[in-house]
Design brief:
The protein has 183 residues and is mostly beta strands. It is 6% helix and 34% strand. The protein has helices at residues 58-62, 167-172, and strands spanning 7-15, 28-36, 46-54, 81-91, 101-107, 111-114, 121-122, 148-151, 156-158, 175-176, 180-182. The chain is globular. Keywords: Oxidoreductase.
């Protein structure tokens, strides 16, 4: 039986080069490439459609070429990665079926190929906004440098004194500022 090949356009947020100082709009670019929407036969990979992407403080250190950091730096020219919520489009893994909602590390792109789906978590509770899984429901939050002021039904708000140097750049990518990137 011939393997079906489906492709789609895939918008990606890419780090142009390592950043020195505060990240700025010119440090990023939006690229469009083609992506296969199905996994290769016999693969345990999962293809997902990203719904929500997280923008977290630790990501700033990944934009630099630091040695000895607790997280590896991003690779310039490649999509940025971070926590995301996604819907499974195709799966070769027995624990994930088409249509399942998952959260875990994904690319800042419309579609991601997850080659290690054991790092994903299936979302069983959809009675809360899915975007919460990129933050308060999706990960342990150790001490953070800003204060959560209030949690509303649809978004997390930060103190009005909070100012992110990349606010303008993230707004280019249709961000529900300050925390969620919607694709």
């Amino acid at each position: 039986m011939a393997e079906r090949l489906e492709e789609a356009s895939n918008k990606q947020v890419v780090l142009r080069d390592y950043v020195s100082g505060f990240p700025k709009e010119s440090d990023f670019e939006v690229r469009t490439s083609k992506v296969r929407l199905n996994v290769a036969e016999g693969s345990k990979s999962v293809v997902v459609k990203n719904l929500y992407l997280s923008c977290d403080p630790y990501m700033r250190s990944r934009m630099r070429n630091l040695t000895g950091s607790y997280v590896p730096p991003y690779t310039p020219g490649s999509p940025i990665t971070g926590n995301g919520v996604a819907r499974v489009i195709d799966s070769g893994h027995p624990n994930y079926m088409k249509g399942d909602l998952v959260w875990g590390i994904t690319g800042w792109e419309e579609y991601s190929l997850i080659t290690e789906p054991e790092t994903l978590f299936k979302i069983e509770h959809t009675d809360v906004p899915l975007s919460y899984y990129t933050g308060i429901l999706g990960k342990f939050i150790p001490s953070i440098s800003f204060k959560l002021l209030e949690v509303q039904t649809t978004k997390v708000r930060l103190s009005s004194s909070f100012s992110h140097p990349n606010k303008k750049a993230f707004n280019l990518f249709n961000v529900e500022w300050p925390h969620r990137l919607r694709m």
